[in-house]
Amino acid sequence: MSTFWSIWVSVIVLGTIFGCWWLLLATRKNQTTNTETDQTTGHSFDGIEELDNPLPKWWFYLFVGTCIFALGYLALYPGLGNFKGLLGWTQQNQWEAEVQQAEAKYGELYARYGQTPVPELAKNEDALKMGQRLFANNCALCHGSAARGAVGFPNLTDNAWLYGGKPENILTTIHKGRNGAMPAKGLMPDMTAEQMDQVVNYVLSFSGREKDAEAAKAGAAVFAQGCAGCHGADARGNQQIGAPNLTDDAWLYGSTYDWIEETVTYGRQNHMPPQEGRLSDDQIHILAAYVYSLSN
Predict the structure, then answer these.
(1) Is-same-fold flag (97-177+273-294; 181-272)?
(2) In this structure, what are the phi and psi dihedrals at residue 268, rounded to the nearest 5 degrees?
């Protein structure tokens, strides 16, 4: 934060506190008595008169205490622009301290599980409970609490794996993340609307859902030219590059004609962020065992 904005924030914060203090003292200075009376201010409405009584003492002292607490807090903790507070507290420092405490408490357990092969660890109930909590905190936002995915986010409970479902594949995916990209119109940037209709019908024909049999037959040639380079000649995908199998019933973006047509027309972009650096190697190992267990 620049010096100007730091001063600006400090003036507003302190001005508010001292303004409240002035208002409190000004109100008290103008009171005519320190005890409750029947004297009125002269204001009356609909037969109701306003009594000229002082502020209750408990309310007055509570207000005073609030102002004093605010000043003390701002002296000890950040709150006045760039001033860091006498204690030097920051959210980052607190988070790092809590992480160190957690590592000291659970590090040995993580390390022990981190040396266990994933398939074996996937049968350990205690390890799976830890993995489930890691998944809930780091993966459920995209893949869902039950790991069944959503549009654009893979289902982790089936056997349809974009990059492979072996332990080493899952570990690589969690460690390094993944970047999936399908270009618009595949490898045929000049694909016409008619050809797009043909290739969509061809893909739908794998499950007997084509709208136009003739278009589906013509779509085989379009697929071979614009799609087979990634999805394979048999359309069963390529896990090396994350090209999905188009012959099963697992669809990342929907399997209707309209969904597939949109995918072919505009392409798709997918990104899974790497967990390396956010989670320790042992934590990732436990998380991989949990994910592995969902489909095994």
Answers:
(1) yes
(2) -140, 150
pLDDT at residue 144 in the model: 97
Q: What average pLDDT does range 65-79 have in this prediction?
A: 95
Mean pLDDT of 88-97: 91
**pLDDT level of residue 27 (50, 70, 90 thresholds):** confident
Q: How far apart are alpha carbons 93 and 96 in whole angstroms? A: 5
If DSSP codes are grouped into helix, strand and coil, which group holds residue 181?
strand
User: What is the model's pLDDT at position 158?
Assistant: 95
Q: Where are the domains of the chain?
A: 3-76, 97-177+273-294, 181-272
Q: How far apart are CA 268 and CA 253, in angstroms?
A: 9
State how far the alpha carbon of 95 is from the alpha carbons of 100, 200, 277, 280, 293, in Å.
9, 50, 15, 15, 31
* Alpha carbon distance 18, 70 (integer Å): 10
Q: What angle do CA 201, 204, 206 make, to 5 degrees?
A: 120
Q: Using alpha carbons only, what angle is made at residue 271 by residues 267 and 276, rounded to the nearest 5 degrees?
A: 160
Top CATH class, 181-272 = mainly alpha
Q: Which class in CATH covers the domain with range 97-177+273-294? A: mainly alpha
